[in-house]
Amino acid sequence: MAELTEQQKAELRALAEMSDDEIDLSDIPERDIDWSTARRGFRFSPVKQEVTLTLDEDIIDWFEKNEPDKKTRHEVINEVLVEYIRDRKFPNQKKSKETPRPD
């Protein structure tokens, strides 16, 4: 990311010193979004598709023996795959449970 110019830094400092009422928002278009049904903390759960995979026996054993939360091996393998894809799609993003699912 490019460094800010001195003029940009000065503009940001001036903006930070303004009250919300002093900031001109007239050039920002209105958005007609209905938030009445929004839910905070809701996690999207995508549709699952059943597939058959052939995995090495030691891989299956590891997932069955090393899951402390008593999730099924299917759930854990799915989580691992989601994280694998997320790491490649968002390589510079800090790891967090709130990181978006890869599309």
Short description:
The chain has 103 residues and is mainly alpha-helical. It is 37% helix and 0% strand.
Q: Which of globular, elongated, flat, extended, rod-shaped describes the shape?
A: elongated
**Which parts are unreliable, with pLDDT below 50 for 5 consecutive residues or more?**
none
Secondary-structure class: mainly alpha
* Main sheet record: none
How large, in whole angstroms, is the Cα Rg? 23 Å
Distance between the termini: 25 Å
Q: Count of helical segments?
A: 3
Mean pLDDT: 83
Helical amount among residues, as a percent range?
25-40%
Order of helices and strands: HHH
Task: Describe, in plain words, how this protein is organized in 3D.
This protein has 103 residues and is an all-alpha fold. 37% of the residues lie in helices and 0% in strands. It is elongated, with a radius of gyration of 23 Å. The mean pLDDT is 83.
